[in-house]
Amino acid sequence: MNFRGVYSVLPTPFCASGSIDVPSLRRVIDLYLKAGVDGLTALGVTSEVARLQDAERDRVLDAVLSHVNGRAPVVAGTSAEGLLNCIDYSRRAKSAGASAVMVSPPRMPKLNSGAVLSHYLDLASAVDTEIVIQDYPPVSGYTVEPALLGHIAREIPRARTIKLEDPPTPLKTSRIIQACEGFEVSVLGGLGGMYALEDLIAGASGVMTGFAYPEMLVEVVRAFRSGEVGTAADAFYRYVPLMRFEFQQGIGIALRKEILRRRGAITEPVTRSPSVQLDRSTMVALDRLLDWLRATQGVKWISS
Amino acid sequence: MNFRGVYSVLPTPFCASGSIDVPSLRRVIDLYLKAGVDGLTALGVTSEVARLQDAERDRVLDAVLSHVNGRAPVVAGTSAEGLLNCIDYSRRAKSAGASAVMVSPPRMPKLNSGAVLSHYLDLASAVDTEIVIQDYPPVSGYTVEPALLGHIAREIPRARTIKLEDPPTPLKTSRIIQACEGFEVSVLGGLGGMYALEDLIAGASGVMTGFAYPEMLVEVVRAFRSGEVGTAADAFYRYVPLMRFEFQQGIGIALRKEILRRRGAITEPVTRSPSVQLDRSTMVALDRLLDWLRATQGVKWISS
Amino acid sequence: MNFRGVYSVLPTPFCASGSIDVPSLRRVIDLYLKAGVDGLTALGVTSEVARLQDAERDRVLDAVLSHVNGRAPVVAGTSAEGLLNCIDYSRRAKSAGASAVMVSPPRMPKLNSGAVLSHYLDLASAVDTEIVIQDYPPVSGYTVEPALLGHIAREIPRARTIKLEDPPTPLKTSRIIQACEGFEVSVLGGLGGMYALEDLIAGASGVMTGFAYPEMLVEVVRAFRSGEVGTAADAFYRYVPLMRFEFQQGIGIALRKEILRRRGAITEPVTRSPSVQLDRSTMVALDRLLDWLRATQGVKWISS
Amino acid sequence: MNFRGVYSVLPTPFCASGSIDVPSLRRVIDLYLKAGVDGLTALGVTSEVARLQDAERDRVLDAVLSHVNGRAPVVAGTSAEGLLNCIDYSRRAKSAGASAVMVSPPRMPKLNSGAVLSHYLDLASAVDTEIVIQDYPPVSGYTVEPALLGHIAREIPRARTIKLEDPPTPLKTSRIIQACEGFEVSVLGGLGGMYALEDLIAGASGVMTGFAYPEMLVEVVRAFRSGEVGTAADAFYRYVPLMRFEFQQGIGIALRKEILRRRGAITEPVTRSPSVQLDRSTMVALDRLLDWLRATQGVKWISS
After folding, report:
1. What is the pTM of this model?
2. Which residue range(s) make up the domain with A104?
3. ipTM of the modeled complex
């Protein structure tokens, strides 16, 4: 089983006090599911998972899985610096009902390709679950080359989905598929959807990101996968200015939460400290872009 | 004197053999000047300056300045790991007729803010020329904080233009302007123009990048600076899918050269090794995007 | 209150199964205290804290504090990517009886000096405890310049101890002391003790590291601090070949545990995965070095 | 032909004005040759090669080769970001009479193992010279894994010497030798000689570094290679406190030049800007260490 289509990474909404805001989380889930996404991802990088305590991870996962309640598969991020933690997180994810775990190479000095392979082999033999490999070098500090992704996928049939965030992702998608000749892998582009169309053209099976207008990703990916490439492209080019805007380093999560607040899903658009406040110029720029989409691009359901 | 408007960073065209292709360079200059840019930049990062020998730097600079022949100001990249080299490059640039030099913090282990300030102070007292500060952390390995940019600009009135490539650039633009209260600085956004509109909204004075359709940047920046923000934004949102596509890590320069080849300016779209060949998927994606711009966005002058 | 003298960072011993080995931890504590160290540090980087779950952190801290039982002050590492986690860990440390918390700048992209200052200010107003600032750039991804350390120390009188691991530490020690003119700070050198003597000469107040022969550090630091610089230096130069050997990137913790096993403190010299096995050559080299210390340097208490 | 024994990396002495001081360079060469080293390396990282202009590189190389005049083999650093530059530098080195070139992987974003292999293959087919592979990740930004070193060495018989500076070097030495089963490679440890003995125990063939007392390295390596391991070790342990002291990040080159000044070889101990001045504490610590070596370790030829 590989994962295909649109997977939305869930943000973790917080109250003004900083505690987890479960009602907002539920509304976000409903918003994404209503948009028609193929699956959800919890406890990802943009879920601010690095700022959650272990008990909070459990609370988020339980809240997500009980609210989704089988309406869509849920992938749970379980990356950890240590193998035991990764295994433990993965077991909890499986018990909670997750359909797969998503795991980056462990962050450590002097990591090498042998240790990365071992990490995934050890995880796979400890926990009987699907594994999504996340290749996001700035976060893990390690770039997984196509040959190593191919090696992992060959050794572990349950690890044949890759969340790819190592640009240029379209080119790397082609190379991964070449490195996996003889069996099928699924590449899901990340990076806020910024190269979703080009990833698909290169052979990706979908996109996994937390972009706050999943409707746009669904429209693009569905059209593409049903062969209407022109329709997919036309939609993508009109939407990508917003994907690009949301995917700004350092403020991307805050922007996403602000949009989800405007869409009625999140009560407080706060991120956990240390964090950057969105300044007035950024808000003005966001307003202008949403106005443009609504007024001139016929995206009537865009909220102001 | 600060620098404003659109400055185009010139690629360095090469023959198939790898040697510098001066006729192509001249055609690129003409293309940019015909597009109405306010100035040109030679020997920048995307000019593959790190792969030129010292004698080749001189050849490029001479070719650029003699061909421009006063039609526009030329900024010359003169960053170097050592101060003496930076001074020497800057003197040559000044002698050759450049209007300013562009300098990053020197790449070195254990760099600190005091050493960065000294580097610019020493350069400024050695060479009587305008200095553009380039803030591009992945290249220099050092992030120049707004307070330090303000400090440099206060101490060196000739160093009040900043080429900003540290995202999120719109937010940092606001902060730099705050840190420079009491005197005027000019911030020029880089990053392939990907955030040009948002940079302008935040107070930037223009854009400095090598995007292969300078006409688009000129249209956006001119409209914005003459107060027609809506016109600027509308143009920008239609063009930014292409800016985003061109600005792909690892293949951006190759894509730019390929587009300039299609526009008749560059004979061979080769970059110096080690380099990445554009694969078929990337070419298909480029074709589709240019077709869309031409067919549906009314950009009639887009070449196929 | 500043911290001075020798602080030993405790490793976290594990059973072969990977679970925490509390009896070994107690023996390590006794070994360090018997050596005469001035204090202990739990949950530091070399305690493999990044591979502990939250519940395990609590278990380790409780085990340490109950076994130390007031015999020496205990510093607890409470660094976290998020402020709330850092505060929560720090509160637990204080409740458990720790004398101070040790905190690095939070690891995050786009961190800046203002955010680092805020992190410490917010922590200090949330938890009434002494704070040791850890300056270890490879781990936190951020270098704290002397001016910022001075700024933090000036604003937060409870944050005037610095664990310094940004080489060259002797030179930086001098600069920190200059940046803190008008009040007293305590600099404790880290880096396995490799520059302990030179740090002391530059004005450091001691050393905080996990070197497996704390007796050596105690001998050096005591002699130095009582004015017998020649005695301190002579001892240091004889011992530093071993400090250097132990402090090898990627295998330092494994070497430390192997030595503590030989000293009878740790049952299994295992580190948590992903980990590197000590190879035969490394073992041979260790044997030779310990033999040399015992046979020719008169270090009779060195175990074989 | 592989390279074995002690290769000393030559510093580039400068006059107070910053220009190259050829008479000092000649005296340094004589000092190293008199010490009995097996070869010399020019234009290495610690030769401040990154701060030399192309014409200065030629001057240094000519000065070195004409002064050495066949008394020992000379390796020339020819690393460059671009392949053409690397080839050109290597041709000049060969013409000038160098016995080998030393080349790091090219510094570039998104480098991968295939591009590294191609870089060496292309170099080897363009220039018929011995190639020393330098594996120094902080400088090149890329870690060459043992398998890739083995692959390169297998494909290019002229590239079977590795200057290894990726710690832990002893462990990596063992792994490289394993990865090169079936043919002979020579590993030369770098890192200021700090792990020279352990590298030799692991199978290294020598050391290549710029340590200012080459006599010490010669004594250690000769004893070891003639089977007197105990003698080698005893000497090494007494000398390594100084190697460790000299090899401080950020000030190592300045310290080396200061020692060579004291030894009468270098007139002005200046490094090119941006540079760090050695402070008083560092000088005091150096004096003390040299005194200890002279007074108590019987190193009579140590200069004060």
Report:
1. 0.97
2. 5-296
3. 0.97
